[in-house]
Amino acid sequence: MNMKTFMRKNTGLVIIITAVVSLSSFMFVRPANNPTFFLIGDSTVKNGRDDGQKMGPDGQWGWGHYIHEYFDSTKINVEDDALGGTSSRSFMNMGLWDKVLVKIKPGDFVIMQFGHNDGGKLFDTARARATINGIGEEQQEGYNPMPYMKKQEVVHTYGWYMRKYINDTKAKGATAIICSPIPRDDWKDGKAASRNMTNSYGSWAKEVAAQTGAYFIDLNTKISDFYDAEGETKVRATYFHADHTHTIEAGAKINTKFVIEGIKSFPDLALNKYLKN
Questions:
Q1: pTM of the full predicted structure?
Q2: Among 3.40.50.1110, 3.30.420.40, 3.90.1150.10, 3.90.190.20, what is the CATH number of 32-118+158-272?
């Protein structure tokens, strides 16, 4: 059977093949080239399943769940790669950062918030996710018993890990933004207790930003100021889950609002041009 006969007897098939080839060619020559806004962090950014633990608005929600609502989806992609329970150290050890890093391209943006899970014993048999306090070059070696490790590991300071995220991001031609951890529902003398940033993850995040030239959003202070104005009773009843760390939908949306305010506070931050009017 010659080609002309084949085409005449299989007109429908030829049309389908032609359409597929044309579409494939179109997709090949016009790849998606919008920048991506990546989010990394712990459960206060995104809980483990990002579903409010199937409990609706009163379940556990992170601020990363709502941030896409502020951006023009025709101009930028928003990808929340945070994971509940992670620290700045374990997010790397679990290979989560490598999976994000391989996708980052010039013109992208990465916002990061760690600290809530960075405290504790360095080689705890239950979690082994803690980092050394501070931003220096101190390190300690020991055996990490976690299923994703099960080997000797050199543990660094919180600042070391945060610098690596920032420097890796910059090396890919992307923009790094670091946030101080959101405050917990902890109070002292009627004021949000997380406000004290001396020798804390909030102050260390700020110092790392200054060292590396990354943008810094002081969520700790911004949200603490808001909590002080609202008052302890209202904050606890309106914005938090069943513990002092995790917000419900209302709290997550408030935190998202402050992240956006922080972004807008930097006129030279190119991320601003992708915000909705």
A1: 0.86
A2: 3.40.50.1110
